[in-house]
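Hi L.,

You mentioned the student needs an example of a multi-chain input paired with its predicted structure. This one should do, with 376 residues in total across all chains.
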Amino acid sequence: MAKNPVVVYGASGYTGMLIMDWLIDQDIPFTAVARNAGRAKEMMAQRVVRLESANYELIEAEHDVDALVEAFRGAKVVCNTVGPFSTVGLVGVEAALKAGCHYLDTTGEQPHLRKVRDQFGELYRQAGLLVSPSNAYMYTFAEIAAELALETPGVDALETATLCRGPRGGAGVSVGSTATIFEGYRHDACFLWEKKLTPHAPHASFNVVDPAFMQPVFCLPWGGTSLPVNFEHDPRVRSCISSVGFYDNDAMRMVHALGQKWDAEYKDLPREQQDAVLKQIVDSTTPAMPPRERTTVQRTVDFAIGRGQLASVRATVHGTTPYIATGAIQTAGVIKLLDGDTARVGFASGSKAFGHRYLLGFLEQRGLARAKVAHL
Ligand SMILES: NC(=O)c1ccc[n+]([C@@H]2O[C@H](COP(=O)([O-])OP(=O)(O)OC[C@H]3O[C@@H](n4cnc5c(N)ncnc54)[C@H](OP(=O)(O)O)[C@@H]3O)[C@@H](O)[C@H]2O)c1
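Structure written out for the whole complex:
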């Protein structure tokens, strides 16, 4: 049973520990939950800033609904960072509901979002609880840009780009994120077109142009992103097409080529053989947890182009250190939920539940984001 109001599940993980940093910064007591408490204790001692002054406890629990209900019960909010969410995510969602907790996670995977919305949205609503996946850099920054664009009357069509830079060759990505990226080969990626989720063409790509860059950025649908799902039943929005590019075009072309190889050679293999292929790709590209991000290296540009019959607007959010920003976004949500201040219960994005202006302000005040809106 949790004795603190906030649970961080995935306590030995890169992102879970960054959420703890921010909770400690805001003096919010938390219960860290991990499948291996020994490993979590060791990792937290190495990685969590100011742990010595934190008010926390650490609980070990199996990744199973009953065990997690027992671990979560007593808390008000669960921050789940155990992914890939499309394979292991629903266990945490079900456990948080049964334990009577609001739920936030860090997914960016469409299949998880759709399952959470369709299987759990109404149940959370009836319980008076929020279930809000994707409170993370991907895709809260792009959604803030989209919401800024939607402030212009008449805008009903969105195109968004999530562009991020890390060390060359993609070395700044965590093990969990790498597994999640390649897991995406197994799933459809959809955009929103005339209010319907529609699959992207196989191997779709985009050459995205932004005034912040000398050259076009090679982008992919990247699983479609969260935005088409979050806007699917939004009366303001008719279409939403989203793209993602690490601005390392060579690394992105490698991911694109691997996607083609997946379809040619692995798509029809039995699941266990696919698992082995994915594990080999993850082990060879991301052998270990990356170091803490630096503002000199990790930078991001997210923009949304909004159009209507005559309206046209471009909203851009410049940012730094996306994993660290993910910890801040989760903590911003936690603060609202502990205060009983959510505009939505049931399934809703962070922007809809807490307000995009609140989330942007939280990030801006901490030097993690800067937004600009241009009417075209
Ligand atoms: N959308 C975004 O912008 C964004 C940002 C950050 C993270 N994420 C997502 O968040 C997830 C975690 O990322 P991360 O950076 O924290 O990765 P990570 O450093 O690899 O950590 C993964 C965590 O999940 C735990 N875990 C993995 N499989 C588990 C299972 N079957 N049962 C119980 N625990 C399990 C790991 O525990 P062990 O140590 O015991 O293995 C570890 O605590 C990924 O899906 C990633 O894509 C998304």
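You could point out the following to them. The pocket of NAP is lined by residues 10, 12-16, 34-36, 39, 63, 81-85, 88, 106, 108, 136-138, 174-177, 180, 289, 322-323, 326 (CB under 6 Å). The mean pLDDT is 95.

Best wishes,
N.
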